[in-house]
Design goal:
This protein is mostly helical and 605 residues long. Helices cover 66% and strands 5% of the residues. It has 22 helices and eight strands.
Length: 605
């Protein structure tokens, strides 16, 4: 690292620290003022929180951003345009915080502010045609502003994600030597971290529309300022804004699609965001925002990695990221957060067929999603198989062969997937037969695709090792996409166990195993098995679905005290009388409920 680089990095760090300190000191003063004058947010049906919290945190964020920028950043034309745009959007947000502005009036104001920024020269420089890049840039500013406005739906979420996104913008700008942009991004990150001190769950103050609009516009502008006109890798340039800001973009797109599918206004407030659905599934507010912080950091890391890739591998990586987001969206869409309107109830709609082809297709939207996911997996896996075989060096000849053969691979495999019944199964609870079906479908698809390549081109120029690697990667990816819902269920169940009732199961046999599975699938977030007790001493220390056998019945009293058990389930067919007497003597004095569970385990919860 040269002396000049070290000096500039120090300048970026000092600017970020200045913004952090100013915002950190101003936020409690703004909070006290807001509480004194009654500028607070009260609980409402369209909001997640159920506490009275001060608002107008955007005031501290605005002062921290403008003061630090004036102190540390040279007064260039683009910087002045950013300060002017931030000031305008802050005023619009502040007015909206005090007196609600109609959505279309606010959208018009956002479009005008976006035009002001674009006219100053900040736009998608990688697009050579001005008549295309200018409207796209304006729409980009409006979209990101609204994305952060929608993301500000849970304590600490928008500020934390904004800090992470700005941090990756610092990294991108520093790697390309754009130190003015790096300083601006460092200031945004410092502002977010200073405000996050009082906004992390449970929040003491909200940023409001003034803060979320300021955060969205500043990040959208910084990302575009990083684009380099002399770069020819358009895919790599687009990866920066798409992946750095992937969490707010995904949340906005997901909520909009879900509301349109349920015939709701896309701009209306509600508790149907990604964060709300994770919380409904069982995560605490802190766990929810930390999970989304992790997702933002992971996608930001991929944005750095993608800029080092050639276009074809970058597109393949994008497809895999898109597949992952689609799978997460499909999983979260299971959470029912919408109330049926009278005209939408099943009784009201019975006997009336869908009126459009689109509505007919939406009846099978889950199958359509599976086909799209498989399309993305097969395409990207085929590219990565070539990268592994040729150690990342794809010549132009290899790329032409890959592009020529990819349609054959896609058609052959998707036909085999459909023929083997992968699109006729329910994948929420996969078993061994489902995994065997995946193995058969992928193997048959690889064989038929190989035969097609042999028949068409006699394998001239094609590597047979690529086809073997492709089969293995495809088997793992297709199988993994089918079990991802089960994995997410297990992960959320484990994460939400802190609030659940600890249960002890007597009997580590077949009935006990069924009870454990029933608790995990149907009683997620309400009850958790802390262990088994079984009279067969040889089972002690063994695990059944990752739950240990803690000993025999003699350890019942000790286990009840050690694990804070609140309920005991006897999963033994025809249990002996002395066992029931022993359970009664240990449980009833401690106020612990106990019951017998028959082969029909539905009475376990």
């Amino acid at each position: 690292m040269g002396l000049e680089t070290a000096r500039e990095l120090g300048r970026v760090g000092l600017a970020g620290m200045t913004a952090f300190v100013i915002t950190l000191l101003l936020t409690p003063l703004v909070r006290l003022t807001a509480v004194r004058f009654g500028w607070i947010v009260k609980p409402a049906e369209s909001r997640w929180g159920r506490r009275v919290v001060a608002r107008l945190g955007g005031v501290a964020m605005f002062i921290g951003f403008v003061a630090t920028t004036a102190l540390w950043v040279p007064w260039e034309r683009s910087v002045l345009a950013l300060l002017g745009g931030v000031s305008l959007v802050y005023v619009v947000g502040l007015v909206d915080d005090f007196r609600r502005i109609p959505p279309y009036a606010k959208l018009l104001a956002q479009l005008l502010i976006g035009c002001v920024i674009v006219l100053s020269g900040i736009r998608l420089a990688s697009v050579p045609w001005a008549w295309v890049s200018i409207p796209l840039s304006v729409l980009w500013f409006v979209f990101v502003m609204n994305a952060f406005n929608l993301l500000d739906n849970m304590d600490g979420l928008a500020a934390g994600v904004g800090a992470i996104a700005a941090g990756f913008c610092v990294l991108h700008a520093a790697l390309s030597g754009q130190w003015v942009v790096a300083t601006l991004a460092g200031i945004v990150s410092g502002v977010c971290l200073g405000f996050l001190r009082y906004n992390f769950p449970p929040a003491k103050i909200f940023m409001g529309d003034s803060g979320s609009h300021l955060l969205g516009l500043s990040l959208a502008t910084v990302v575009l300022m990083e684009s380099r006109p002399h770069s020819t890798q358009l895919v790599s340039i687009l990866a920066v804004p798409a992946l750095v800001l992937a969490v707010p973009i995904f949340d906005t797109c997901f909520v909009t699609v879900q509301r349109l599918l349920h015939r709701l206004h896309p701009f209306a407030g509600g508790i149907d965001h990604v964060s709300h659905r994770l919380a409904i599934l069982g995560l605490s507010p802190r766990q929810t925002v930390i999970v989304l912080y992790g997702a933002s950091a992971a996608l930001g890391g991929l944005s750095v990695f993608s800029t080092r890739l050639s276009p074809l591998p970058a597109i393949a990586m994008w497809l895999l990221v898109l597949v992952g987001l689609i799978l997460c969206g499909r999983y979260l869409a299971r959470v029912n957060v919408y109330r049926l309107q009278p005209a939408e109830t099943p009784a009201a709609r019975m006997g009336s067929p869908p009126v459009t082809l689109i509505e007919t297709m939406l009846l099978h939207k889950r199958r359509l999603v599976e086909v799209l996911v498989d399309f993305g997996i097969v395409s990207s896996v085929y590219v990565f198989a070539h990268l592994l075989r040729f150690e990342g060096a794809l010549t132009s000849h290899l790329q032409s062969l890959l592009v020529r053969s990819l349609p054959i691979i896609l058609v052959g495999k998707l036909i085999c997937f459909a023929g083997c019944g992968l699109y006729r199964r329910v994948w929420r609870y996969p078993d061994l037969s489902d995994l065997l079906a995946v193995f058969k479908a992928v193997s048959l698809g690889s064989i038929l695709s190989s035969i097609a390549l042999l028949y068409l081109w006699r394998f001239e120029g094609y590597s047979r090792a690529v086809l073997i690697i492709d089969w293995m990667l495809c088997l793992l990816a297709i199988g993994g996409s089918r079990v991802v819902e089960r994995v997410l269920d297990e992960w959320i169940s484990a994460a939400s166990n802190q609030e659940s009732v600890p249960v002890l199961i007597l009997g580590a046999g077949e009935t006990g195993e069924r009870v454990l599975r029933f608790l995990r699938l149907q009683g997620r977030g309400t009850r958790r098995a802390v262990g088994f007790l079984d009279d067969d001493w040889r089972k002690q220390g063994n695990q059944l679905h990752r739950v240990r056998v803690l000993g025999t019945r003699e350890r019942l009293a000790a286990v009840l005290a050690e694990y804070g058990v609140r309920e005991v389930l006897i999963a033994i067919s025809d249990p002996p009388g002395d066992l029931l007497q022993h359970v009664r003597q240990c449980c009833e004095p401690r106020g612990i409920a106990w019951k017998m569970v028959t082969a029909d385990v539905t009475d376990a919860v």
